[in-house]
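Lab notebook page, bench 4
Experiment: in silico fold of construct C2
Operator: M.H.
Input chain length: 360 residues
Purpose: comparison with the prior construct
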Amino acid sequence: MTYNMIFRDCIQLLRHRIRSYCGCLSGVLILLIAADRASASSQSFDIMINSPPREPGFGTLTVTAPEGGLLKLEAFTNVYEAGATAVKWADVPEGEHVLEWSINERRRAVPVYINNDREKEIVLHQRPVPGMPWVSPATGMEFVWIEALQIWAAKYETTVNQYRHYKPRYRARPFEGFIMDAPRQPAIINDFNEAMAFTAWMTIEDYARGALADTNTWSYRLPTESEWETLAGCGTGREYPWGDEWPPVSGKAGNYADTVCEEKLGYIGVRGGYYDGYAVSCPVEQCWMNEWGLYGVGGNLWEPCVSDDYHDRPVAWRGGAWNRSSQRDLRIKSSRITQSAMRSDKRFGIRVMLVANDIQ
């Protein structure tokens, strides 16, 4: 069995797995196919560019064929409607090729195999590019590039809808009559091992979709304690997520025990009449955004962290929650608990990080 036959079979297996998924495109997308000039046979085939389900389709595509066997495709975002756009290519020989594409001058290469008799569709997908936002294909989870740490951090705590990709039957019981599993509320994950299992599942699923190059270099995981503190203070070393002053100003800090929580549930509210409008956890986008574009780093639900030295060793929950009001629980350095949560507890969630060991 030749290398080309083995490669072809592997590509076909991968395409079968990822065919129903689509990639995220932004701005101008440039693709180059370096043709094998030694191959005599040629064909025309379609490349399907599928739009993400949460965004409109990406419109007109233009094709030029310079001399030397190099084809160039430029995709512009003049949008007309959601869906897929097909492009005809001509004179691409059968055989092994390298598909190169770039966004903001950062290139990625994907090996492809053109078979005249079978495959005529290639599903394109984006991979994480340092310095740019990222969206996980498996969950739709949005990530923000954190320059100070050279990693990605989830923009929000993991939502109920996102967690249901992993556990479709996930439910959380109401708390004192208040709903705890609305689609955009943070998912309640009370167990360190369950949190780590979720990030491992995300790594495997996004690798299967072609979004991660491998599972050794690229992986999703929980933040370390030092990473979490950097996220909470936006690298400033300040005392609280919102600054150095106490108490916080209403509308300029996260979802903690406020006057609504105090009135409805009897918890002691943050001093000074702090108001965020929610008795329990709130939709993740409603839990105050910091300067780095991260929501809820401090408040809403406690977030699990791993050891700075051993990333498979959970050590503490950080950040406070919707029922916390003391300075100790809201201060970045001291907002820390280590005990395991009870299954009935409604205060614990998860924030995911994406790391790549090859980023210089």
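Observations: The chain has six helices and 15 strands. Helices lie at 3-18, 160-164, 192-208, 225-233, 259-265, 327-330.
Next step: discuss at group meeting.
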